[in-house]
Design goal:
This protein is mainly α. The protein has a three-stranded mixed beta sheet, covered by helices on one side. α4 crosses α5, α12 runs antiparallel to α19 and α13 packs across α20.
Length: about 625
């Protein structure tokens, strides 16, 4: 896609003119780019501001520096530190990122050349959204290491240090030689400080009234108890280290292993137990209300989360109504398929519940059944890869692997999730499948999850992003609405690619997954804005979509601690489909699905308004 300085500046002004929701507003006529002293000065100022922001971001998120292969020359010693979640670390993170953002926003993007306007739009817009919740609430964790969003509860059952640190050490911290083994041990020794700092922040938040719901406290305690249940020599952090030492043939592996065992037994496990003791202490006093409306500044906090997670100015009430409309539309489509297959009695949700337990659709909940489930997911990736060139010009250079979720986090983990590859190719993309209970994965539903998490969903997106020559910060931060919207769009795209041809039940599984995202618009806003109870939200999910009860519980409890994150999927998908319809209508016979998909894919981490501006510029050029 051609990217002149003038075109990019025009796109940027369309973005800023529309505002976060892309709902209209006056555009500004851009100035033509020149090579004069003023432009050179603006470019230099922006480069310094971007450098400041990059250093501040990766200094405070060293695990992300490792994940995205940020050079030690840029941010020294990131490979030997962990993110600080202590009160002091949290204050420093907020202050430094705020100051860096202010310096960037002071630069007029119309004075910039090259690809700088795009970088300015992406970084300043997304960082402002990410920092907005922290300006409302003093508690919580800003831009948590797991994802680019704010956590109201520093310790919870699906993210935060008790879950993310061992997952990071087991899957992303390299152990390929003696130097890397030493860096692993340094980081392992830092776990105690990271956990104790998080506990201090968590204690302060609870004292200030930001205590999690009782079910979150219970599940968070379960994660801790599961982690410390095994003997130190059987702990997943230690055994994973041993396996990688052996695989890499590291010299003096026994000495490294002995030091690791000492750290795990004398530092890491005791720190987990301190967190467990505090969780047990507050169990009796934890409230049952699921929503963050009851927290200090809770309503304003949720409004900020909605804006950040959706790239829009929609109110929680407006999002709720969109969800109800989409639930009605998708339910009607599912009803038609169910009736055509002879399922006519009961609501769509009731009929889907019956389908979920039909023997032909159930993987045995045995080691053999779980192995078959993993094998089927791998086969689905192979199948869609065969037709991918007909729909995309960009093919992923990095492979994707399917792996089971680690046992210690299975109880609270989602049904599936994805981790991106390393830029240097040392780590593939990983599609994690939760095989705790195969009932979570009916055979007709598994393909859609696979396409969402791997290809053409998250893996194609991130594998493409990693290859781009963009500043490392642009690679590391992403829009929840566009990223998850792309993955949900990919589910529908898989159907259009023929993956469900002659398979009505597979297509039913796709629609059920789309319905699930629509239901989450209703449930998330229901809990956090309309004061629904946990049970009301669970009952609605089961009734509306026929979700297995255990999955419904995990989903509701997930969004009790990740407020607003569920909203990005459906709203992002709707925007991409709206843009595709606009392109088809304006271009007619000139419309090329491969070119459209590639256009969106190459900016799929950017805010939705920027994607909208980019697609409209692509339409203009394609129509010349």
């Amino acid at each position: 896609m051609p990217r002149t300085a003038l075109a990019l500046t025009s796109l940027l002004f369309l973005l800023t003119g529309c505002g976060p929701g892309g709902d209209g507003g006056a555009t500004v006529e851009p100035r033509a780019a020149t090579d004069g002293p003023a432009v050179k000065s603006a470019d230099s100022a922006f480069d310094r501001a971007l450098d400041d922001m990059t250093r501040a971001f990766f200094y405070h998120h060293p695990e992300l520096a490792t994940t995205y292969g940020v050079s030690e020359l840029l941010v020294p010693r990131t490979a030997r530190r962990l993110m600080s979640r202590s009160p002091m670390g949290e204050r420093g993170r907020r202050e430094e990122l705020d100051a860096a953002l202010e310096r960037m926003q002071a630069i007029d993007p119309s004075d910039l050349t090259g690809d700088r306007p795009r970088t300015h739009a992406v970084v300043s817009t997304l960082m402002a959204g990410a920092l907005a919740p922290a300006r409302v609430a003093e508690y919580g964790t800003t831009i948590d290491g797991f994802g680019f969003w704010y956590l109201p509860y520093t310790i919870n059952q699906i993210s935060g240090p008790t879950v993310d640190i061992p997952n990071f050490l087991n899957s992303k911290q390299p152990v390929g030689n003696g130097e890397e083994a030493e860096a692993y041990l340094v980081r392992l020794a830092a776990v105690q400080g990271a956990l104790d700092g998080a506990l201090e922040s968590f204690r302060n938040a609870v004292a200030d009234g930001a205590i999690p719901p009782d079910f979150v406290v219970d599940k968070s305690l379960g994660v801790v108890e599961s982690f410390v249940a095994a003997a130190p020599e059987d702990n997943a952090v230690y055994t994973s280290f041993l396996q990688r030492l052996d695989a890499a043939g590291v010299q003096d592996a026994g000495a490294y292993a002995e030091r690791a065992l000492t750290i795990v037994s004398e530092q890491v496990i005791p720190a987990y137990r301190r967190i467990g003791d505090f969780l047990a202490e507050i169990q009796a006093s934890a409230p049952h209300e699921a929503g963050i409306w009851r927290l200090p500044q809770g309503e304003a906090l949720y409004a900020a989360m909605v804006r950040h997670m959706t790239d829009s100015q929609r109110s929680p009430g407006q999002v709720h109504e969109v969800g109800l409309d989409e639930v009605e539309r998708i339910t009607s489509e599912m009803d038609a398929i169910l009736r055509s297959e002879g399922y006519t009695e009961g609501s769509v949700g009731e009929r889907m519940l019956r389908l979920n337990v039909e023997e032909r659709f159930v993987y045995p909940n045995t080691a053999e059944g779980k192995a078959e489930l993993i094998a089927d997911a791998r086969s689905q990736i192979e199948g869609i890869n065969e037709v991918l060139p007909q729909w995309f010009a960009t093919m992923p250079k990095y492979p994707v692997e399917v792996r089971p979720v680690p046992e210690f986090s299975q109880d609270s983990a989602p049904t599936g999730y994805y981790n991106p590859p390393a830029k240097d190719g040392s780590r593939p993309g990983v599609y994690w499948l939760n095989v705790r209970d195969t009932a979570m994965h009916p055979r007709f539903a598994l393909p859609t999850l696979t396409y969402h998490e791997s290809i053409p969903g998250h893996h194609l997106h991130f594998a493409t992003a990693v290859e781009q020559e963009v500043p490392p910060l642009v690679t590391a931060i992403w829009s929840n609405a566009s990223g998850e919207g792309w993955a949900l769009y990919s589910e529908q795209l898989a159907a259009e690619m023929g993956m469900y041809e002659s398979d009505p039940y597979g297509d039913l599984g796709r629609l059920q997954a789309e319905l699930h995202r629509a239901v989450r618009l209703v449930v998330d806003t229901g809990m956090h804005a309309k004061r629904w109870s946990r049970e009301q939200a669970i009952d609605y999910m089961i009734a509306a979509e026929g979700l297995e009860e255990g999955t419904a519980i995990s989903e509701v409890e997930r969004y009790a601690v990740w407020p607003g994150q569920a909203l990005g999927y459906k709203l992002g998908m709707l925007k991409i489909l709206e843009l595709r319809d606009e392109a088809r209508q304006k271009l007619g016979d000139k419309f090329d699905i491969r070119a459209f998909n590639d256009t969106v894919l190459h900016v799929a981490s950017a805010p939705l308004p920027y994607i909208e501006a980019t697609v409209q510029e692509w339409i203009r050029q394609a129509d010349m």
